[in-house]
Amino acid sequence: MSQRVTIGDVAKEAGVSVTTVSRIINGHYEKMRPATRQRVEDVIAKLHFVPTASARRLRQNQGHVIGVLVGDISNPFSSLLAKGIDDVLKTAGYDILLMNTNNSLDTEVRALQRLYQQQVDGIIVQPNSRHFTPFNNLVKANIPLTIVDRELVTPPLTVGTVTSANQDACYQLGKLLQDRGYDNLLAISAHFAEASGQIPRIAGLEAAANDFGLSYHNIETRGHNRNWLSTNFTRQLARLTGRTAVISLMGPVLFDLLNIFKEHHLTFPQDFGLVSFDDWEWSQYVGNGIFLLKQDMELMGNYAARQLLTQVAGHHQPGSTTLLPVEMVDRPSI
Questions:
Q1: Of 30, 25, 3, whose CA–CA distance to 14 is shortest?
Q2: Global pTM?
Q3: What is the average pLDDT across 117-121?
């Protein structure tokens, strides 16, 4: 493969400065001789030069590119979040540079550095770290930043957060389950990220259990396979007396649970009640339907994008947390 033609190659061939070539690329022909413009454009055609985004930005204050970091692009909810962001930014004339951190702190740090080097106009991040330290350099460089989905500990006042009302939703769920005669809450979690949205969900369930006289238990699956979960789930379920509600605190956990139920010939709501966090439309066809705590990830992305655009426009408002409601979709699994 031949070496890529650079803006410097064009400038050298045309006998002009790199700045002159950049001005022509970006349509700035003021005070430029027509002959110079024609000569440069002829060289661009001759060398088949395709300008990079960085070349276009040499004479622009903004590249109209927003960096978006998601925790796990394979999770449908990260994809929906990114779509919601893109829908708003595209209308505003911005492209997104989407990066997947794979719920890794190290990958997140490298991705942030890459976006900084790309001179993006702002960043929206679904963070892995619970602390603000990885984002300090962005604030120092005055790069607009919005946190989405997950919450950080004490972010600066200049940084806004958009997330769901996870804790309140789970507290209200606990009250509902107590009203329907349940005695035990058995949550299944998978903390793939340090800043997991499951943290406030667990806090809400624990508070509800304490206030409404329920027993609360949690099985954390991270680092374990389905066989481990199968053994520990059935063991924990057998220890509990009274009526138990099983609560999947993230969508993908539900797939493992459904396999375990089939393996052990367990049914809901006969053997226990079942609740799942996140919007799984197909779940209405499992049994007579699974009770859901439903987030609108596209709407969350819309809000995050609008908040970032406000910062990009120079309207620096004190940072705040926008809590979007979580909808209860009542189905016969409890």
A1: 25
A2: 0.79
A3: 84
